[in-house]
Amino acid sequence: MDRQFRSPAAPAGPRIRPAQHDTVENPARITARDVDVFYGDKQAIFDVSMDIPEKSVTAFIGPSGCGKSTFLRCFNRMNDTIDICRVLGTITMDGEDIHDPALDVVELRARVGMVFQKPNPFPKSIYDNIAYGPRIHGLVNSRAETDELVISSLKKAGLYKEVADRLDAPGTGLSGGQQQRLCIARAIATGPEVILMDEPCSALDPIATAIVEDLIHELKEQYTIIIVTHSMQQAARVSQKTAFFHLGRLIEYDTTETIFVNPREAQTEAYITGRIG
Amino acid sequence: MTSLLIAALVLIVLGLAYQQGAARSRALAGAGRLHSRPRYHGALVALWAAVPLLFVLALWGLVSGALEDWYIQPVVQANVASGDSLATALQRVQGLASGFGVSGQPAPWEIDAAQTLRAFQRQLQFSAIALGAILAIGGLLIARRRVSARLRARNHVEAAVRAALILCSVIAIFTTLGIVLSLLFETLRFFSFVSPAEFFFGTVWQPGYASTGSEATGGYGMVPLLVGTLMIASIAMLVAIPVGLMTAIWLTQYASRRVRTLLKPMIEILAGIPTIVYGFFALVTVGPFLSDLGDVIGLNITATSALTAGLVMGIMIIPFVSSLSDDIIRQVPSAMRDGSLGLGATKSETIRMVIFPAALPGIVGAILLAVSRAIGETMIVVLAAGNAPILRFNPFEATSSFTVTIVAALTGDSDFASPQSLVAFALGLTLFVLTLMLNIGALAVVRRYREQYE
Predict the structure, then answer these.
(1) Same domain, B130 and B226
(2) For residue A15, is pLDDT > 70?
(3) What does the pLDDT look like over B201-241, one tens digit per residue?
(4) Is residue B358 in a domain?
(5) Domains of chain A by range and CATH?
(6) CB contact under 8 A, B342 and A109
(7) Which residue, A65, A116, B142, B453, has most beta carbons within 10 Å?
(8) DSSP conformational letter for A45
């Protein structure tokens, strides 16, 4: 992954080339309007609005502490789990307000899967890790159904071949990259429509990163993916649209091609060429 | 007063020696690079001065008593009336000499002897201090001469520090060893009266309290006590485990931060209540209440019973279980919790299926520690269990335990060498082995748990 890596402090060099994607934009799946997030008295996100197209990869980039992860966690209301966190504004998914009291957060999280920065398999077997979500949501009724769902999820995450003979082994015994793909398989198993990825490759080595990136590429055929990443190269490689955050504000949101080749804002240009960050 | 003077002397010697060493090394610093900083040189010289001084003082403290006895004994022996105890007369003279006085009117020879003894004591003290001072000054001078740029004072001081640390830990180890050995030897003495088989497997506890003689009469079977102990501990755990665990889960997972900071110390106050207070709470309040309750629902519950003692002991152990479990549950990485919540699990599903299983080994360790605490608890059982060492399995009746029986065996007025008293050591050793095994088990479980996330 690091073929094009430059130190952020390096002077502006050749631009990162985004991968060529079809430029036809899919219809918006998720819309955010005027979202503010507060941690106690401190405001972390300021008035962010954006539309996220379905069945594509949207990348959030920006320097550390810019609020990109906080904003990502709004989409499955993970910020609810933090006592002092308040989210204002409207986020809709398929036209439904996700903060509507009539909408159950459990149901929302089944539809919006999440993959975390550090692989976090449960201290259970590989099989039970995958079966966890389907079981609590009652998606499977028999052992045979569970088997089938576990295997198909592992296959979708490209992990099945590596673990087929040891599904009963603990998930924590896998390598970091395998653990992260296990977590992706675990998220897929509940049948989500959207998958949120919070720096999924930051704890992985370049080879494991490349495998996960290929996986993201395949998954976007079926799922709407939002990925937070520290690596601009990764954003350029995997995403169709890119949003640049700085100090809690959305500075620029456009196709990845535009952001990396012809950004409108000076701040974006400064960041992607390595002058701030 | 003298001890204060001696302490002042030691401090002065220490300060002087330190200052001398530091100053000397500083003077050398101009000539070349010092191996050690001046303060290490100072500390080394201070050690050289203080160690011989302290050694002499310690020696004086240890042998002065014996020396004084040896000095005054002939005088006392010559005057003491036949038939009176020599030891008592010695004690009277010593009491007079130290200025504590004695009961009754002291005889003239006693006053004379006391004065002689007093003079000897002064002499002894003076020579000890003089010898100590000479050695200290000698040590100081020698060490001061040895100060040089290349002297590895730092290494020497570090070695002295290490030696002091080892000495302290050795004290703890030898104390433990001494306790275990004394328990062991007294137990062996007890087994010369009563066979181990009868003690460990006998079902009758009825030691005959013969006022004289050292014959073992009656039954010395510890099974009724074991049953009583385990019954009370089980009831305590039945109360403490569910309540303590649920408290811990609520505090870690549900309570808001404000509530938690308010409630946690309040729960821990329970742990600070002296057990004797729990004991009379059990005796005065809980026991009669349970007895009345038994009347209402048609059960015959004695006021002092295994149930009373167990219930109150359970309440006492709640903070123990909840505090330990709280820490263990908190150690489960929050990434686990987020992973589960992110999949759409509810809070209680997350706790039941992810957090609790992950914390379980640690919680088991906490519970085992609590059990060993319950087994060793004395005061509550003494007051609330009724002290009836009879083999029965009914928690509504009075019972007894190891600890209660040990108290009873040692507080009676029977001869200390009689089996009635010695049995306390055998019971103590059994209790010790029991709790030791529980503790080892708990530690093993906790250790395995620690490795899990690393």
Answers:
(1) no
(2) no
(3) 888 888 776 545 556 667 888 899 999 999 999 999 999 99
(4) yes
(5) 29-272 (3.40.50.300)
(6) yes
(7) A116
(8) E
Nearest CA in chain B to A187: B343
Element (H, E) at B130: helix B108-146
The residue behind tokens 């949501």 is A137
Q: Note whether A123 contacts B342, CB cutoff 8 Å.
A: no
**Would you place residue B125 in the very low, low, confident or very high pLDDT band (cuts 50, 70, 90)?**
confident
Query: What's the pLDDT at A47?
Result: 93
- What per-residue confidence (pLDDT) applies to A12? 45
CA distance B135 to B246: 65
Q: In Å, how far from its chain's centre is CA B74?
A: 42
Statement to judge: residues B139 and B270 lie in one domain: no
Is residue B230 located within the same domain as residue B371? yes
Do B134 and B256 share a structural domain? no
> What average pLDDT does this structure show over A228-233?
90
Mean pLDDT score, B378-403: 86
Say whether both B10 and B146 belong to one domain. yes
CA distance A96 to A112: 13
pTM above 0.90? Answer: no
pLDDT exceeds cutoff 60 at B72: yes
Confidence category of residue A208, pLDDT binned at 50, 70, 90 = confident
Report the b/e string of B146-170 with b at 16+ CB within 10 A. Answer: bbeeebebbebbeeeeeeeeeeeee
Question: In what helix (H) or strand (E) does residue A37 lie, and over which residues does it extend?
Answer: strand A28-39
A contact test, residue of B343, B348, B352 with most A CBs within 10 A: B343
- For position A134, what pLDDT does the model report? 93
List residues bridging with A50 in a β-sheet: A32
Q: Which domain holds residue B280?
A: 218-453
DSSP 8-state secondary structure symbol assigned to residue A172: G
Q: Which residues of B touch A (CB under 8 A)?
A: 256-257, 333, 335-346, 349, 353-354, 357-358, 452
- The confidence score (pLDDT) of residue B322 equals 92
Residue at B447 is within a domain: yes
- Averaged pLDDT of chain A: 87
Q: Is residue B277 pLDDT above 50, yes or no?
A: yes
8 A C-beta contact, residue B266 and residue B258: no
Shared domain for B238 and B351, answered yes or no, is yes
Q: Which of A61, A63, A43, A55 is nearest to A219 (CA)?
A: A55
Residues of chain B in contact with residue A122, where contact means CB-CB under 8 angstroms, are: 336, 339-340, 354, 358
Taking the CA of residue B392 as centre, how many other CA atoms within 13 Å lie in the half-sphere pointing to its CB?
A: 13
Nearest to A106 among B336, B344, B353 (CB): B344
Q: Which of B111, B129, B151 marks a domain boundary?
A: B151
Distance CA A24, CA A26 (A): 7
Question: In this complex, which of A83, A108, A132 lies closest to B256 when CB atoms are compared?
Answer: A83
**Predicted confidence band of residue A178 (pLDDT cuts 50, 70, 90):** very high
Instruction: Choose the mutation target among A136, A195, A226 for the interface with B, i.e. most B CBs under 10 Å.
Output: A136
- Residue B257: its chain A contacts at CB < 8 A? 83
Contacts of B253 (CB under 8 A, 6+ apart): B329, B347, B351, B355
The residue that leads in pLDDT, A129 or B76, is A129
Average pLDDT, chain B: 86
CB contact under 8 A, B343 and A133: yes
Pairs of residues, one from chain A and one from chain B, whose beta carbons lie less than 8 Å apart? 69
**What does the pLDDT read at residue A10?**
42
Q: What is the ipTM score, two decimals? A: 0.83
Distance between alpha carbon B272 and the CA centroid of its chain, in Å?
17
